[in-house]
Every structure is written in C-alpha cells, then in structure tokens.
C-alpha cells in the first residue's frame, strides 16, 4: 500500500465526505462567544475563540489575542517568522499583556498563504469527487475499495500518551489499525470492548464510511510506521 502524508490524508478523508454531495464546499465557522477559560493552575479568564478550519482567532475580553501552547497554558500571542500566531512568554491573566498582542493580526503574506491553501483544498476535493465517480462507473454497481497507508506523526509539543493501567508504553500499532480499518467492532454496554482504555467502542472509520455509503465504499489499510517488536508501539 502506498503511504500518504498527513496533509494528503486530510484531503482524502475530507474529500470522501463530499464525494456524493452536489453542494458548495465552504469552511464551517464556529464562535464560542465570550466564555470562561481556565489555566492549568485554575486561574480563570474570559475570552472568545472563533474562526473556521483555516482561519481562527482567540481574544480576551479586553482585546488581547492569545494562543494555547502544547503545555496546555494560554499565552498572549505574537507573530512567528511566518506571520502566524504563536505564544509569547506571558501567560494570560497571570502576566501583564504585551502591547503587541492587542488586536494582533496575521501578516498579509500569511493570509495570502492560507487563502491559497483553501483554494488547493477545494480543488483537491473536486478531483477526489471526479476520481470516485470514475471508480463508481468502472465498478458497475459493485463496491469501490480505497487502499491507504496511515502514517502516524508524534508532535514534540504534544505529550506522548501513557497510561499505567492500559498502555504503559503508549498506544499500540494495533490500536490505530483497529480504530481505522477494523470490521464490525461494534459493542453495546453489556459486552467487552477492545478499546485501549476500556471505553465503549462503536465501530471503526472504515465501518462508518461503509455504512454511510450503503456498502459502496470499502476502506482498507494499515499503519505504515515501523513497530517496536517488544512493546507493539509505533515509531513517530
């Protein structure tokens, strides 16, 4: 199976969503309104988060932009070398807000870059729709099989999952394979579950799309990362 990057995987997965829909594809906006947010030390502040899949903003009630870092703290924002929001060293509601964070906006170059990403995404979705229509025609009413390789990436600013009881070394390759590609892992509240934290499990990604397509789409694949033979944990 051919491995794909996370960027292209996102395009494929979102493209599947719109394969059979004759609708205009636009970003889905969200807006929390002014809500209470909490720092890890339980300090609270009022802020608003809004935007869509491509553009987003987060602002305190007095107008200072902020971001949440990988350490789970909220920091006042500044711009990085690419003109995108990034964290300063100043924590929201704990430190004095820097003046540069007030009504901070991305650079025009960064805005243009994101707009280009939106155009490319929409183009890719249209190509995916054309590809799937062609596969449907070739299949002559039979199910279409999509084969993918799943590449797992562990980001350094996000803590690696470890659970003393269920997964002391982290999630297993088999956990991801089951989540994405297993068939008929469908349990009610009285039955055992293969979920790594023993939570209720209601089918895989493949199951979902097979049901949504009324059996016309079959997604097969596996995790492409090498696996540690002693622990069963994939490399990032």
Topology (SSEs and partners):
Blueprint: H1 6-17, E1 30-31, E2 35-38, E3 44-51, E4 56-60, E5 66-68, E6 74-79, E7 85-91, H2 108-139, E8 144-150, H3 173-181, H4 205-212, E9 217-223
Parallel strand pairs: 8-9
Antiparallel strand pairs: 1-3, 2-3, 3-4, 5-6, 6-7
The dominant shape is: globular
Q: What is the H-and-E element order?
A: HEEEEEEEHEHHE
The rounded distance between the terminal residues' Cα atoms is 19 Å
Q: Which structural class do the helices and strands define?
A: alpha+beta
**Mean pLDDT metric:** 82
How many distinct helices?
Answer: 4
Biggest sheet descriptor: 4 strands, antiparallel
Strand content: 15-25%
Low-pLDDT segments, ≥5 res:
1-11, 18-23
Radius of gyration equals 22 Å
Portion in helices: 25-40%
Number of strands: 9
Number of domains: 2
Kindly describe this structure.
There is one protein chain. With 236 residues, this protein is α+β, with helices and mostly antiparallel strands. The chain folds into 2 domains: 6-25 and 122-223, no CATH class; 32-106, no CATH class. The protein contains 4 helices and 9 strands, in the order H-E-E-E-E-E-E-E-H-E-H-H-E. The strands form 3 sheets. Strands 1, 2, 3 and 4 form a 4-stranded antiparallel sheet that branches. The protein has a 3-stranded antiparallel sheet with strand order 5-6-7, with no helix packed on it. The chain is globular and about 60 Å long.
Short description:
The chain is 26% helix and 21% strand. It has 236 residues and is of the alpha+beta class.
Index terms:
about 240 residues; alpha+beta; 2 domains; four-stranded antiparallel β-sheet; three-stranded antiparallel β-sheet; 9 strands; disordered N terminus
